[in-house]
Amino acid sequence: MFKNNQDIFQILSEAISEGILIVDETQTIIAVNSSTEDMFGYDKDELNTKPLETLIPSNYQKGHGKQFNSYYKNSEKRTMGKGRALFAVKKDGSTFPVEVGLNPFNVADKKYVMALVIDITERKNYTDKLEKTVEERTKQLREALETEKELNDLKTKFLSLVSHEFKTPLTGILTSSMLLSKYKLAEQQDKRDKHINTINSKVQYLNNILNDFLSVEKLESGKVNYKFTEFRLSKVVNEVVYNANMLLKEGQKIKYPENIDDISLILDEKTIELALSNLVHNAIKYSPENTTIELQVNQDKTHTTFKIIDNGIGIPKNDQKNIFNRYFRAENALLDQGTGIGLNIVKTHLENLGGSISFESIENSGSTFTIIIPNKAN
C-alpha cells in the first residue's frame, strides 16, 4: 500500500530541504528524499531496501536495534538523542553530527517511522568555536583578575614597606637628636659621637632608598647612559668584597673567587659593581652568623658567569615567581630592612647590557644567584 503512495511522498519530500527517510518495522529503509541522498553521499534510490544501520556509525550500532524496537512499540513524536551528541555515517565512511526528529505514522494498518535528519556540522562548529572562545575569554579574565589581585597585594605591601622603611630611620634620627641635647659636658663626647654616627647612618640609609627610587625613574624614562670601558674584573670584585666585609655578621666570611686576575670586561663598570654588590649584600643580610658567602667567576670566549652562593633563609617557593618584581619582598624577609627595589634594578640593568640573572633557592637552605653577561658590549 505504501508503494502506491511513493509519488505523493516524492512530491512532498522533495519540497523539504532537510533529509527525510522512512523505515518499516524491520529497520529497512523504504524511501528517502534527494536531500538525504545528497547528505549521505548516495546515488538516487541506492539507499532503498538498505538496513537503517547503514547510516549509523559502528560504535553507535550496539543497542540501537533494541532501542528502535522499544520506540516502534511505543512510538510517539520525539527528538532523538536529546541531551547527547548524535552522529551519522556517510557512504565514504566519514561521520558528521546530526539532529534527528522521529515521527511515527500508519498506512493501511501498517506502522512506519519517518525520520527528519538535519546536518548540524556548521552549527556544531560554531558552537564549539563559541564555547572555546568563551573558555579562552574566561581564562583570560580569570588571569587578569588574578594579576590585578597580585598587583593590589604588591601595592599594599609596598605602601606598608615604604612607611616602615622611612618611619624606622626617621624615628632613630629624632631620638638621637633629642638625646644629643642632653649631653653637654665635655666628658660626654663619646655619647654625642655615638648618636651623631647613628644620625649619619640613618641619613645615609634614607639617601640610598631615595637613590633606588631615582634609579627606577631613570630606567623607566630611558635616561640611563652606560659608559663602556675595559677594566679588570679583579678591581671590581676587590671593591665589592672590601665594602661587604664591613657588613659581615659574627663569624661570616666571603670566599673570594679563584683565578680572576687575568679576566677583563668591556662593559659599564659601575653596573657590574652595582649588581655584584647588591647580591653579595643580600647574601650577607639573609644569612645567619658563622656562614660563608661564596663568589664564583668563570669566563669563556663570549660570556662571563658569576655565582653568589649563600646558606641563608632562602626564598619560599610561592614567592619565587615575584622575586624580581619591583617592591616585592619575600614573606620570610619582611622583618629585615629593604625596599624590594634592588633586584629589579639589577635585572633591568643586566638585560639592558645583554645579560641575564637567575636563581635557585630552597627555603631555609640558601640561594644561588647566577649572572651571565657578555664579555664586551655589542
TrEMBL record:
<dbReference type="InterPro" id="IPR050736">
    <property type="entry name" value="Sensor_HK_Regulatory"/>
</dbReference>
<feature type="coiled-coil region">
    <location>
        <begin position="127"/>
        <end position="157"/>
    </location>
</feature>
<dbReference type="InterPro" id="IPR000700">
    <property type="entry name" value="PAS-assoc_C"/>
</dbReference>
<dbReference type="InterPro" id="IPR000014">
    <property type="entry name" value="PAS"/>
</dbReference>
<keyword id="KW-0597">Phosphoprotein</keyword>
<dbReference type="GO" id="GO:0000155">
    <property type="term" value="F:phosphorelay sensor kinase activity"/>
</dbReference>
<dbReference type="Pfam" id="PF13426">
    <property type="entry name" value="PAS_9"/>
</dbReference>
<dbReference type="InterPro" id="IPR036097">
    <property type="entry name" value="HisK_dim/P_sf"/>
</dbReference>
<feature type="domain" description="PAS">
    <location>
        <begin position="5"/>
        <end position="59"/>
    </location>
</feature>
<dbReference type="Pfam" id="PF00512">
    <property type="entry name" value="HisKA"/>
</dbReference>
<dbReference type="InterPro" id="IPR004358">
    <property type="entry name" value="Sig_transdc_His_kin-like_C"/>
</dbReference>
<keyword id="KW-0902">Two-component regulatory system</keyword>
<dbReference type="Pfam" id="PF02518">
    <property type="entry name" value="HATPase_c"/>
</dbReference>
<dbReference type="InterPro" id="IPR005467">
    <property type="entry name" value="His_kinase_dom"/>
</dbReference>
<feature type="domain" description="Histidine kinase">
    <location>
        <begin position="161"/>
        <end position="377"/>
    </location>
</feature>
<dbReference type="InterPro" id="IPR003594">
    <property type="entry name" value="HATPase_dom"/>
</dbReference>
<protein>
    <recommendedName>
        <fullName>histidine kinase</fullName>
        <ecNumber>2.7.13.3</ecNumber>
    </recommendedName>
</protein>
<dbReference type="InterPro" id="IPR036890">
    <property type="entry name" value="HATPase_C_sf"/>
</dbReference>
<keyword id="KW-0808">Transferase</keyword>
<feature type="domain" description="PAC">
    <location>
        <begin position="82"/>
        <end position="132"/>
    </location>
</feature>
<keyword id="KW-0175">Coiled coil</keyword>
<keyword id="KW-0418">Kinase</keyword>
<dbReference type="InterPro" id="IPR003661">
    <property type="entry name" value="HisK_dim/P_dom"/>
</dbReference>
<dbReference type="InterPro" id="IPR035965">
    <property type="entry name" value="PAS-like_dom_sf"/>
</dbReference>
